[in-house]
Amino acid sequence: MRLFGTNGIREVVGERLTPTFVQSVSAAIGASFPVGAPIAVGWDGRTTSPAIVRIVSGTLALAGHRVLEIGLLPTPAIQYNVPRLGAQLGVIVTASHNPPEFNGIKCIAADGLEVTREVEERIESAVEARAERTAPFRETGEVQSDSLGASRYIGGILALVDHSAIARRKFTIVLDCANGASVVTSPELLRRLGCRVITLNGHIDGTFPGRRSEPTEANLSDLRHTVPAVGADLGIAHDGDADRAVFVDAEGRFVPGEKVLALFARDRARRRPGSVVVVPVSSTQAVDDVVRPLSGEAVYTRVGSPAVTREMQRRSAVFGGEDNGGYVFPELQLARDGAMTAAAMLDYLSRNGLTISEAIRDLPQYTVARRQVPCPAAARADVLARLAQEFGASGERVVTIDGLKVFRGGGWVLLRPSGTEPLMRVVSEARDAAEANALADDGVRRVEATLRGLGAPPP
Q: Are 248 and 261 within one domain?
């Protein structure tokens, strides 16, 4: 039984995610961990989160666990609080950037990192076995509240940036909270950094009325128009649970995530020459280009923040992240963190006396192209195996960390199965836009041809 995807369980409420399903997962969690240290529970701003939390907390308490509810907070704020509360586990009710009909459950280890796949498998096995622990009357756990999570988290970020330098810049920022959990932390953080803050979608509403939760360029038209209209220095946008942050420059131009990833990687490598940064195999070549001259090393992992953060921990990395706005600053915690990303960007711009458009101007220039191909789950392994042989026979460099990444000419193409849909995702990168598109289109054609050769039915 596979319940956990790349970042927790995410399902449509009323379909698979029913009260019975939530109770079975909660009971499995309760049975999988010993009674003793508390379990911290937090949630995002989705309309269904309060009801789901009641099932989660009640089930854990009836299993004998002491539950610390830390409230509606961004996912990284909850992760930050788990070790500081001495909790053995964190349970977050969230579906991150998914549409409003979704919700889910994400588990955080005692050190604040996402739990390992081994722990997820233990919980999945317990769900399948219908395991549960029922505490006798006198051993039932308590449900307590901790109201200091937001201030504890904001204080941790403030301690890591140059507050005075940022305040001297007197930034005007348009902050798009996506009607999500960042409402309770990011506006306060930016104001305490001396910024003038104009908010969009700045109230909690789990239906996401202002825009779709995922902070893609297409979803940020209001932010891109507002920033130049009010004369702001930059725009910042979060997703629903605020583990990501993306940027818009003063002219209203969307700043690609791969540019921000390379910018932070270079900054961290400059400050600590010879250090390691960790990124997934889908990341831009620009990261390697900027850290190598600084005697740094770019280490590549499977796609997904759990793989990145665990490798960062193993390597004592100075930075890591993904090009979707999820960046990891280990001096705060090993977690994707939207508010820390916003503060780190303001700190960088203040230290260097730059605007964001100036900051990215001298980075290596690449173009990324993205496609997807319908591909039945049962055919994925055979498709990748055949294409690995095909590319390998032509003498091209092939990497199989996650899917199939092939270096061709001056660029690369990655063929990777989706973790949530019957799709093969195709990502390519090259110096030239035409070449990047040609690589992506060739990847699509090869997947389609291989599927036909296998006689695979449509998904």
A: no
